[in-house]
Amino acid sequence: MTTVHTLLAEDVTLGYGERTVVDGLDLSVQDGRITVIVGANACGKSTLLRALARLLPPSRGRVLLDGKELHRLPTKEVARTLGLLPQAPIAPEGIVVADLIARGRSPHQRLLSRWSPADDLAVAEAMDLTGTTHLAGRAVDELSGGQRQRVWIAMALAQRTDILLLDEPTTFLDICHQVEVLDLLTDLNRERGTTIVMVLHDLNLAARYADRLVAMAGGRILATGDPGEVLSPAVIEAVFGMPSEVVPDPVSGRPMVLPIGRHHCARPACPA
Q1: Predicted model pTM
Q2: Does some domain include residue 81?
Q3: What string of H, E and C letters represents the secondary structure of the chain?
Q4: Which pLDDT does position 107 carry in this prediction?
């Protein structure tokens, strides 16, 4: 089982140069739970995730890991606790799948230490879980987008961190593989207690897999809580500017969002 950790953003303001993207945001990540961040494009979802992963220092406020300021902690110490799958990772040219996945073990390597049976086991297990074992000898740049995405997820799993941050982990995957990946992450959470924070665009998949949903708009958190509390027509319209109906998902019982387009709106108030 994993160690209990705390990950907090306190009054965090984030941006790039003169442009502020996230403004005065507070977020407490629930240990041992699956948190999913949703929102329209450019609302600050990925920027927030980058700050939680120590890739982007706040211009104001702070991010705390176990009560310590994240940007002051040693890199390897952070990497042994917190793993990240970014939105568009880049592999070294010519690297093969097995070698890329093995890089997930680097935070556990110490000076002059040798590759261990535990490292072999972690890599083999990660490839097995993601269905990438048969790709071990293939060059990463020869793979399809979906295959590459599963390889990157395998590298993140091989890192075996207690907290896993994922920015759009289902990108490039067809619906079957999207569900497989989200089922896999749920298994990690339920069986190992891995804390998972991920950004998803698909509201219905977010509702089905999240223990806690965070809805962002304009660099701020508009609503947070159980999917049933967050996904109301009013919140969806405030976040996405989109009229919708919300009904029970016949599979999970969670909320299911039905967008209402201009050509399918029977209500006179539906915007053009």
Answers
A1: 0.89
A2: no
A3: CCCCCCEEEEEEEEEECCEEEEEEEEEEECCCCEEEEEECCCCCHHHHHHHHCCCCCCCEEEEEECCEEHHHCCHHHHHHHEEEECCCCCCCCCCEHHHHHHHHHHHHCCCCCCCCHHHHHHHHHHHHHHCCHHHCCCEHHHCCHHHHHHHHHHHHHHCCCCEEEEECCCCCCCHHHHHHHHHHHHHHHHHHCCEEEEECCCHHHHHHHCCEEEEEECCEEEEEECHHHHCCHHHHHHHHCCCEEEEECCCCCCEEEEECCHHHCCCCCCCC
A4: 81
